[in-house]
Amino acid sequence: MLVLTRRQGQVLRVGDSIELRVIRVEGDRAVLGIVAPASIRVVRGELVDAVSDEVRRAAGARSQVRDLLEPRR
User: Fold this and answer.
1) DSSP code at position 70
2) What does 7-34 look like in DSSP terms, one character per residue?
3) Tell me: the pLDDT tens digits for 31-59?
4) Please, are residues 8 and 20 in contact by the beta-carbon 8 Å criterion?
5) Would 31 disulfide with which of 13, 23, 48, 65, CB 3.0-4.6 Å?
6) What proportions of the chain, in percent to the nearest 5, are helix, strand and coil?
């Protein structure tokens, strides 16, 4: 993992087409601006984790429904 320190207004470039800019720093939070092509998906990590958890729960519920609907022998 590359760890960098940036100040307000400074930019970090990833490849030729992605730019991360430090818009401002508020206490212990940095506000970032991201410029990337539409083909690059930019998603907050906690959203990916939440969706993954929901998919796992839905898969478990689907399995429970299937078990309830299967004929008993």
Assistant:
1) S
2) -TT-EEEETTTEEEEEEEEETTEEEEEE
3) 999 999 999 988 888 877 777 767 777 77
4) no
5) 23
6) 35, 25, 40
The one-letter amino acid code at 44 reads R
Both tokens assigned to 26: 């508020």
Burial 17-41 (b: 16+ CB within 10 A, else e): eeebbbeeeeeeeeeeeeeeeeeee
Of 3, 8, 5, nearest in space to 23 by CA: 8
Query: Do the beta carbons of residue 51 and residue 62 sit within 8 Å?
Result: no
Separation CA 14–CA 39 (nearest Å):
15
Q: At 22, give phi and psi (nearest 5°).
A: -80, 110
Residue type, 63: S
Q: Give residue-wise pLDDT tens across range 52-70.
A: 767 777 776 666 666 666 7
